[in-house]
Amino acid sequence: MKLQEITRLAPSNYVKIWDYMAVTDLQDFLQIFAEVIKETQIIAEYGTIYDAHGNILKQYAHGLPGRLVFSMTASSPWFELELPNQPRIRQIVTIPKHLLGG
Question: What CA–CA distance (Å, rounded) separates 34 from 32?
Answer without folding.
Answer: 5
